[in-house]
Amino acid sequence: MPVPDYESFMLPLLRAVGDGDEHHVRDVRDRLAAEFNLTAQERAEMLPSGKQSVFDNRVGWAKTYLDKAGLISSVRRGVYQITKEGRSVLTERPREITKSYLERFEPFREFLTLRHNGDVDESSFSPSTDPTETPEEQLEVAYRRIRQKTEADVLAAVKTASPQFFEKLVIELLVKMGYGGTIADAGEALGRTGDGGIDGVIKEDKLGLDAIYVQAKRWQNTVGRPDIQGFAGSLLGRRGRKGVFITTSAFSKEAREYVGQIEAKIILIDGATLAGLMVDHDVGVNTVETYAVKRVDSDYFSEE
After folding, report:
1. What share of the chain is helix, strand, coil (3-state, %, to 5)?
2. For 233-285, what is each residue's pLDDT tens digit?
3. Order of strands across the sheet with 72-76?
4. For a tag site, which of 78, 178, 221, 261 has the least CB within 10 Å?
5. Which own/partner pairs from 261-269 qualify as long-range (CB within 8 Å, at least 24 positions apart)?
6. CA 175 to CA 192: how far, in whole Å?
């Protein structure tokens, strides 16, 4: 089953600390995972950033909202305890606790006002249509949408560029990825148009310990198996063991299956992958804005 949204964790979390004792966050997470029958794999599912698990993130925000509403408190780092207000809520036996439910508490309303300066409704800050996503999830959804659009725009620009510009682009990308030595070295090697389906040869590393044969084609049509066979044959004729075939279009299923059946190692980079690599390595794109997501350093405030 998918990891529940953060609102689903609020009431179970409050119940988990409802005995008035101090509870470590690790034990609370284990209890919630067991209550929702989450597997180890489901608990390990990561946010797209890879920085935190979805489960920990959602439990964390459930805890934050309960804390801001005054229903639980952090006794010390990673340790929770229910408050008097929290026990009162449990005596009401609510069917669920949502963010709307918490707005009855003045500290929580003040928290929302503080976050948004009292100017606009919280929903206008959400880049996602799902109000149950945590702020980190909303931010990452927005980032993925921006990235997808950027990659599409990059690929469209590459397809309209000249063959000469495309060759220059490929050189810069390969060098930024750590291949080809310097721009001058890679440019000289790749600029020598070869025969037999090879556009150039570059160094695998700056020391030139091995060679990588490159074919770069700004094509519209799908690259099929015969094209890859021709490239593989050219590698064999030069005793090459490694090759990269880069295209602005796509590869057929037969072409992809073929590279898995031959001895030579050939990497296929289609248009979508090319655009993603360009964004990753800042080729043809620039950074418009950077947002740093920060959290309180609990160790800094520890006086023990």
Report:
1. 50, 10, 40
2. 888 887 888 899 999 999 999 999 999 998 889 999 999 999 999 999 999 99
3. 23-24, 79-82, 72-76
4. 261
5. 262/232, 264/232, 264/235, 264/236, 264/240, 265/241, 266/228, 266/231, 266/232, 266/235, 266/242, 267/243, 268/223, 268/228, 269/244, 269/245
6. 17
